[in-house]
Protein 1
Amino acid sequence: MPEFSAKTMNKFKSVVAKYPEKGAALLPTLWLAQQEFSAITPEVEEYVAGLVGVSLVRVREVRTFYTMYTPKPLGRYHLQLCTNISCSLLGAEELLEHLKKKLRINTGETTPDGEFTLSNVECLGHCGTGPAMQINDDFHENLTKESLDKILDLLK
Ligand code: FES
């Protein structure tokens, strides 16, 4: 069974203290788990359920709803390209195909060197400046094939 490191357990305790009941801290606890274990595996789901005192089903529901929680470890860079309506109208589908070809992976996959994981996601809240993509904690807007190539070159 996985366990938080002492440092993460301290973070967990301070997160939980902000909520009236432990179960309400499920989302930030899952995020701590994602950072600590690189993935929310079934074992991690069980551990988190025990920590916050909610059912395993509840943890699974939340884990599968939000794209920031992943069942498999991600690459060093998680490329999340928005393919929702505004970004699609601005060319996101074409950019997704470009990324697949360039990285030689499909959505939901990680490059063999562990550098990039590619996902297509719903609206990132940058509809007016699409196509938009989130790479780890950073946002990139008004993307074109050329700007994507530059970003990938910089990350390599
Ligand atoms: S539709 Fe792409 S950011 Fe909203």
Note: The CA atoms of residues 107 and 119 lie 5 Å apart.
Protein 2
Amino acid sequence: MTASSLSFKLAVLFVIAGMAMGIGMAASQDHSIMPAHAHLNLLGWVSLFLFGIYYERRPSLDRSRLAMIQVVIWSIGTIVLTVAVAALHLGYTAFDPVAALASLIILAAMVLFAYFVFRPARDTAASPTVRLTPAE
Ligand code: HEM
């Protein structure tokens, strides 16, 4: 499996969970876990899908083990942060260090992604976009 296909699959699972959480909040009229819902959707759906698009356009990076590791670390961090933020907003203050740890995991995954973006273009250059010109 490539990093992009893993990103897309996990992103879809995260947004289904995030939407279910949103529907649960709306139905119960209890929005106390709203920050967890927002983080799950923005880290798990939006950001992960964007990573997938970036990787898909760079085939050699997409097939690399390091890109796969980035997606896995990001996803684990997203799950742990979502649970910890929800628990915190439900009054379980003991989850504070868990949220702090998760935030560092996510930061580490973003620093790894930044390395992909900034390292020399030789390894990471986007594949040329196919341009179709209409026949005259
Ligand atoms: C079935 C789909 C969804 C439902 C039912 C839903 C429901 C909700 C509800 C009830 C709130 C709390 C609003 C408040 O207390 O002011 C909320 C907040 C939020 N949702 Fe969703 N949501 C859905 C999907 C999404 C998606 C896909 C995203 C992001 C891509 C998203 C991002 C957010 C954000 C960022 C907030 C916080 C807004 C704020 O700070 O005022 N939601 N959502």
Note: The mean pLDDT is 94.
Protein 3
Amino acid sequence: MQRILTRGEIETLDRTSIVRLMLPKPNAFSIRAQRLRDLAPDNPIQDYLLLIAQLADAQQQVFEQEWSLPALNETQLAQAQAHGMPPFSASSTPRNDVWREMFRAILAQLLQQVTLPEPVRANVAQLTNDIRNNPELIELQADALLNQELEEIDTARAPFIMAALQVYWSQLAAGLNSKQIPAHTPFGVCPCCGSQPVSSTVMLGGPKEQIRYATCSLCSSQWHIVRVTCTHCEDTKKVAYHSLEEGSVGIKAESCGHCQHYRKIFYLDKEQFAEAFADDLASLTLDILMGEAQFYRANNNPYFWQAAEQ
Ligand SMILES: [Zn+2]
Ligand SMILES: [Zn+2]
């Protein structure tokens, strides 16, 4: 009897015709903010989603301003090509000080919002103060976040620092052209900046119909990962799907029995407006279910950090 190919195998056969990488969209943050607002009503973390919507709005405004960012130099480009490494590796590329200017601008936008809750306002004001008077502290926290040193992370400050790093790296990535990125980069990390994905999305319509893309948690680039493959360890044999009984059928957790990790996966044919960051954050109940099933989140949503387990 002839064996029928799985969807993953069919996709592998046809890999040459698939667009491998999509650089960040210029309105990525405003799409995120809108989706967060749409998801907020009746969500168990409604107020938090609305706060992050305000943060994403501030990110969009700062993203659209003129910043002079360091261009990719020939040495970086040659090294990336020679070693098959992301050209703007977040853990090894020195950050230009302009990222702290972007950070200050994001916080200034937030402070103008009259609806900002009082404890958040105090936190944002203190961060603003530290950028000016204690930049080394901010840099150390940024290093800890980019290197996933969870025990060093201040969870209340992390979403704001990450927001600035996202704007900085999204601008760097947006300035690349696809030809500058090596054809093969390590599995499971962003081809532009080497960061882990926040979630993955199965596309709808056109040539990308039913093709799955991972979204970078830092620069928002999206890259192709064959379906029914663990986005964390690349295993294909012990992948399973979980969803909430009362939840959307377009939102699932893709778990892996090989590495015991999971990430969310969104299906645009069933949840048309799913957004990689917003829908991940708004489906915290699914994370609780996965924790009960003894699976670990592969990495944090950049807008929501949990304290390292003692
Ligand atoms: Zn990236
Ligand atoms: Zn795995």
Note: The longest strand covers residues 261-267.
